Every structure is written in structure tokens, then in C-alpha cells.
From TrEMBL:
Coiled coil: none
One annotated GO molecular function: hydrolase activity
Gene3D superfamilies in the cross-refs: Ribonucleoside hydrolase-like
Keywords, sorted A to Z: Glycosidase, Hydrolase
Entries under InterPro entries matching the protein: Inosine/uridine_hydrolase_dom, IUNH, Ribo_hydro-like
UniProt keyword annotation of Hydrolase present: yes
Organism: Tetragenococcus solitarius
Name the UniProt record assigns to this protein: Nucleoside hydrolase
Every Inosine/uridine-preferring nucleoside hydrolase domain range: 4-296
A Pfam family of this chain: IU_nuc_hydro
Amino acid sequence: MKQLWIDCDPGHDDAMALLTTIAHFEQANILGISTIGGNQTLEKVTKNAQNILSFVNSEIPLVKGKEGPLIKSLHTAPEAHGNTGMDGSFFKENHYPLVSENFLQYIYQTITSVEDKVIIVGLGPLTNIALLLEVFPDVKEKIEYISIMGGGISHGNVTPLAEFNIYVDPEAAQIIFQSGVSVVMAGLDVTENAEITVQEIQNLEGKGKASHLAYELLNFYNQSGRQFGFLNSPIHDLCAVAYVLNPTIFEGEYHHVEVVTDSGTARGLTFIDKRKNSKVPENTFVLKEVNRNKFVGLLVHSLEKLDLY
Ligand code: BDR
Ligand code: CA
């Protein structure tokens, strides 16, 4: 059984990642979920996480993390995810409980209390995870790897060079890449090919409770994606959990990845060292190719499983 901690900022694609992982409870145990200000404010993304977890009758501990990045102020993405951060669906009023303890302490204690190593999944700006590694460095021994959606080695989306999650908190991202913990990076190079088509979104309509929720959310996300030139919808964050659940969906290569933290046009850029005589050790498995059919199949199958509960 894999042991997972998921850090997220839901977010339409975060929602797909959460639903898919929850559906795989027989193979992946989610020890807890933390939220981070990103796609929307911390209050809003936490409410969205509560809505999703309540929707599936989950009992997974939910912890509210940090409001914003380590140094700069928070940059949100309402143009992609709407005013709530997860526009497109209406959820029943709920009071899904939040863990009241200090979030870093709680994550640390949870990870160090299980026998196996834990996989950390980062679906938003990497602030919470960076703080965890800085404040409790011994936690690194308990981490199998950190699977992130973030960055890209050929282009960005917020700026020509920087992807949203890294752009929001480059200092945090650099801490992760330099931590000595293995990283799996699902950057834009692969996530923009991990698309669901308009027809595949349409096929989810009215199929069952979870499928229909995904239909509503993805429908909004598809419409908002048009302004960025996407006809189909890349489900970026789902890549980071799909790799954990079934690595054969992807192909990748080991590289040394770094982040530009200078202020200037390259802020938030992730780059790899491709020099043949490079002496820097590889720190990241960079995902390069996705089998789109298997990827969408994983989502559809997971939703069908949730439909039965
Ligand atoms: C990333 O940014 C967010 O808007 C998405 O949820 C995803 O994590 C894609 O660049
Ligand atoms: Ca996200």
C-alpha cells in the first residue's frame, strides 16, 4: 500500500487529481491533505477541498496550510479557475472538519508516524512542502519522493518562461529541487499533452454522481481554457498523481533541475543542465511523454468507481 500526503490548491485539475486518488484507496492511502494559497486564496481553496472531500464522504484529515508564498505576495488564477477557484458546480453546505493543530507539526507527525516511506504530491505552489523540509529536515529520510505538477523545460504559462505553481513561489520550488529528496516533475512539456477532449468531457454528463461533478467542473475549465488557446483541456495536476498510481502512463528522463529565483523576466523558470560534461547530480525524473488514452482512461475509470459509492 502506497502512503501519500497531498498538498493542493483546488483548482479544477486539483479536483480531478483528488477524486482519482481517492478512488484508488485500495492501492494508495492518503494520510492527509493540505491546502496552499495558489489558484485562489487559502480560504477559497480550502473550502473547495472541503467540498470535494464532503462530496465523496471522505474522512481524510484536511489541514489548512500557508496563505501565500515564502517571500512575495500571492498571485492567483481567477481567469482559469473562476472567482471561487473551482467554478462550475454547486456543492451542498457542509462543515468538513479541519485539523486544528499547526499544519507543519501535523504533517511532520503524520509522516513520521507511519512505518513506510511516504510519497508527497505537490499540486500547487510548493510553499508548504518547502517549509516542511526546512523546519523538519529529518523528515527527508521518510520521503520516498516528491511528485509535483510544476515547471516546464521548454516554456511557461503565466509568463513565456514560467509555469504558474513555480512562478507563484520560485524560492519554495528551489528548496525542493535542492533538498536531496528525489523529485518527479510533471511540467508543462507533458501536462499540456495530458488533455481531455470536449467529447470526453461531454461523455461524463449524467453518468453518475462523481462523473457528473467532473463534467460540470471540466466544462467550466474547458471554457476558461479557450482564452489561453486550448480547445481541449490539459488536466495538469492529474499527471502528478497518475504517475504515482501508474508510472507506465509516462516516459521521462533524469535531469538536474534548477529554478530561477531572480526578479526579472526569467523568474520562476525551471531549467535542466544538459551539458555533456556536467558535474551536477541528477535530482529529478522529468516526465516527457504521456499515453493520453491511458491517462484519460484512469480518470474515467476512477470516476466510475466513485459513482458506485
Ligand atoms: C497549474 O496551475 C494551476 O492553475 C493548476 O491547478 C495547476 O496546478 C498549471 O500550471
Ligand atoms: Ca493546482
